[in-house]
Amino acid sequence: MGNTDSQARFVQLALCRILDANLDRAREGLRTIEEWCRFGLDNALLTEECKQLRQELAHWHTPALRAARDTPGDAGTVLTHPKEAERSSVQAVLQANLCRVQEALRVLEEYGKVYSPEMGAACKQMRYRVYTLESQLTADQRHQLLERSSLYLVTSPTENLFATVEAALKGGLTLVQYRDKTADDDVRLRNAQKLAHICRHYGALFIVNDRVDLAIAVDADGVHLGQQDIPIALARQLLGSQRLIGRSTHCPEDLHRAIDEGADYIGVGPVYETPTKAGRPAAGFDYVRYAAAHATVPWFAIGGIDTSNLPDVLAANVKRVAIVRAIMHADQPTLTTQYFLSQLTQQPLLGTSYDH
């Protein structure tokens, strides 16, 4: 009888220690996420959801569970992993803590079923809420970064594709589109996978041109569609609400239709005739000025823009530009990117010179 009672007390103590540790883990992770929602995104709704989840967890974090804590005797306190010692970006911090919260809630759900069925059920519902929070947070981050991006690099096929894109990212670029109309699908898939990895490392958005399937396959931040591509509504159905969808536009009718259909951003152009869009006449500055007056989503002037004509483009009230050849064919992509960004943000480059 005594052994049975002792075993029951041991199991109960271990159960309480598991619940206490994972309640701490979930609450700490939520607080880390909440701070970014509050100070990084200025998003009151996401901040409030994090706070509500923390408070609901605090309800289950009773003195009885806290009393079971034995930090000096916890074998797990000395365990660590090299990746825990550093984070490559804010995104990495958020992802790590979202995973931490989700894992902790799963533990609380399973062991909570033994300790208190009500607790298990509550943690199950909270876990689903955290999945929703993750989707909302990802979407909000992407839109925030899109809003802040004034320079958009659209790639063209080159032998030094990856080196050029990485050099531009080192110059401060935050938005990249992979565009290759001629390569085989297996080549496009490999290129998109590598570019997505590079962009994630630098905390930049990665968009795939035309191909929704490739965007999904490499977990891209979104897709860019031309006027002849699939409808935005279908792309949204396939991609979900958290990814970005852009649309090329060439006239006021295109602009209004794209916005009405739910495009997150639009391309406006071509401003000048360009071999990238062979056979398409330039839309010119009249359409650019129209977009400046009427666009209600972020828009990027595109088409033949380079360092020599950038001042004329900016004079048409352009705040964002998309660049292809001027960066992809540049001798110094990092410096060229810095030059474009300095002109777009009206911040002079310090300690560098640029020869037009």
From TrEMBL:
A Pfam family? ThiD2
Identify the stretch(es) annotated as Unknown.
1-129
The entry's free-text remark on the cofactor is: Binds 1 Mg(2+) ion per subunit.
Against InterPro entries, the record matches this protein to:
Aldolase_TIM (IPR013785), ThiamineP_synth_sf (IPR036206), ThiamineP_synth_TenI (IPR022998), ThiD2 (IPR041397), TMP_synthase (IPR034291), TMP_synthase_cyanobac_bac (IPR016229)
Q: Does the keyword Ubl conjugation apply?
A: no
| Top-level taxon | Bacteria
Which intervals of the chain are annotated as region Thiamine-phosphate synthase?
A: 130-356
Q: According to its UniProt record, which cofactors does this protein need?
A: Mg(2+)
Q: Which family does it belong to?
A: Belongs to the thiamine-phosphate synthase family.
Q: What's this protein's name?
A: Thiamine-phosphate synthase
The gene for this chain is thiE
